[in-house]
């Protein structure tokens, strides 16, 4: 087990040694999707980044419980239901499936549990009862329930803002609030909207309440890591802390936040009109290549999206994939993955993936040198270390998970190129060199490099 993993904690603003609350076990809660539209790459970057964290913790010997929720009731979902003229729950289910498919295409491991907000109303009511009983929250009588933020000495410790500098919380009727900045734990039912009964009246949960209740249900009153995008620090994560600690729960020990995918310097979002849906991008590159691109930047660094950068990343990945294919052909077997010391050192420094990619590049260079000299031991060592690194990054093309879906496309490609090479070999055997050269040139025009070796003809992309 790694004793040297260091992680950045948004709450303390520093990188420190990771020490789990319980020896050998790690509990992680990641804020998941509000399922009101198809996922764009800004949404799934969080899934990829925290999947890498989870894989590294598992590889380091920890037993990881990973919770990623689904917000399946929200103003945006209700609004979309009106526009699509279908029930709100049908909207939620439709887009939850779209997110699940996107995660699968990018090889994001399924969470240990994936709770839906609407399945945990009981736990939310229990939390509100605690908060009202100890005076942290109040029910003004109209069906709403609010948290009284003025009395919280620890409010805004994550974002480090001042309460008096905040604008009013626009999540319910200001008429019933003690302070405009008080936020809604529960919203009174509106005509035609879905609602659930509570001691204070029928209504539906506030966004922040949902995550506190679900995190406690699956991870307990204290757990190791709470994750999400930078945009969730305020108000969502601040309000989670406020209501959880007001209930007497320690809640998250470490707060981790991934940076945004940007387009022309702005956060990718539907409101900016620059969102790029995962399903559309997967028409241009394979899921494994999109994952490689999204995971290539440090999780705390902004990732400026461009199709040029995506294609460059895809080409670089294909070079690694090509080496593994040639190594497997030479060795006649697929070497098991081994995590190198240099890769381990990089990942232990707050998941320094860019440094880890530089390590992979050096291993690839030595592997190609070994291939050129038919050094089988060198090829085997390089292939094993590359597979070990790619496994942590979720991008191992030889993993069985890619036997369907995206990798099926690669298998089709392999079959088609192999057929063309057989035709080329047949032309050469009958000394029809013009036809053989034409086939070679046609393959090369597709970006496929042909290499004739004593062991036979090999091909790679790029």
> CATH H-level name of the largest domain... which superfamily?
HUPs
Largest sheet: 4 strands, parallel
CATH architecture of the largest domain: 3-Layer(aba) Sandwich
Instruction: Give the tally of β-strands.
Output: 15
- Any idea of the CATH class of the largest domain? Alpha Beta
Q: Given the structure, what is the number of helices?
A: 14
- Percent helix, as a range, is 40-55%
Measured distance between first and last alpha carbons = 38 Å
Order of SSEs: EEEHEHHHEEEEHEHEEEHHEHHHHHHEE
Unreliable segments of 5+ consecutive residues: 404-408
Mean pLDDT: 90
Features:
462 residues; alpha/beta; Rossmann fold; Four Helix Bundle (Hemerythrin (Met), subunit A); 3 domains; 45% helix
């Amino acid at each position: 087990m790694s004793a040297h993993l260091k992680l950045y904690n948004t709450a303390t603003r520093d990188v420190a040694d990771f020490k789990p609350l319980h020896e050998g076990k790690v509990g992680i809660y990641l804020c998941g999707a509000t399922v009101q539209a198809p996922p764009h790459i800004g949404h799934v970057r969080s899934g990829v980044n925290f999947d890498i964290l989870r894989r590294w913790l598992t590889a380091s010997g920890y037993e990881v419980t990973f919770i990623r929720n689904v917000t399946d009731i929200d103003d945006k979902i209700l609004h979309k239901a009106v526009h699509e003229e279908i029930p709100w729950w049908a909207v939620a289910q439709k887009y939850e499936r779209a997110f699940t498919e996107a995660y699968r295409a990018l090889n994001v491991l399924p969470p240990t549990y994936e709770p839906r907000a609407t399945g945990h109303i009981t736990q939310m009511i229990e939390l509100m009862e605690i908060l009202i009983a100890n005076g942290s929250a109040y029910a003004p009588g109209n069906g709403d329930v609010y948290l009284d933020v003025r009395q919280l000495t620890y409010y805004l410790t994550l974002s480090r803002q001042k309460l008096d500098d905040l604008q009013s919380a626009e999540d319910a009727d200001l008429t019933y609030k003690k302070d405009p900045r008080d936020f809604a734990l529960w919203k009174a039912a509106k005509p035609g909207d879905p609602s659930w009964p509570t001691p204070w009246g029928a209504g539906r949960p506030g966004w922040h309440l949902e995550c506190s209740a679900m995190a406690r249900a699956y991870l307990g009153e204290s757990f190791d890591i709470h994750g999400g995008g930078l945009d969730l620090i305020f108000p969502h994560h601040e309000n989670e802390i406020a209501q959880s600690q007001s209930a007497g729960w320690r809640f998250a020990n470490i707060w981790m936040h991934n940076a945004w995918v940007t387009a022309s310097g702005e956060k990718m979002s539907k409101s900016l009109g620059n969102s790029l849906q995962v399903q559309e991008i997967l028409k241009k590159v394979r899921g494994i290549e999109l994952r490689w691109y999204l995971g290539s930047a440090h999780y705390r660094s902004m990732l400026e999206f461009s199709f040029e950068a995506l294609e460059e990343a895809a080409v670089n990945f294909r070079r690694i994939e090509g080496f593994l294919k040639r190594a497997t052909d030479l060795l006649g077997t697929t070497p098991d993955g081994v995590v190198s010391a240099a890769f381990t050192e990089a990942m232990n420094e707050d998941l320094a993936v860019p440094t880890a990619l530089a390590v992979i590049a050096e291993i690839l260079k030595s592997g190609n040198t070994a291939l050129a000299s038919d050094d089988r031991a060198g090829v085997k060592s390089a292939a094993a270390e590359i597979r070990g690194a790619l496994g942590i990054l979720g991008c191992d093309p030889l993993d069985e998970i890619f036997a369907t879906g995206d990798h099926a496309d690669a298998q089709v490609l392999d079959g088609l190129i192999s057929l063309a090479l057989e035709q080329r070999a047949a032309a050469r055997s009958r000394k029809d060199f013009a036809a053989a050269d034409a086939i070679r040139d046609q393959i090369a025009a597709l970006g496929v490099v042909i290499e004739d070796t004593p062991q036979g003809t090999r091909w790679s992309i790029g």
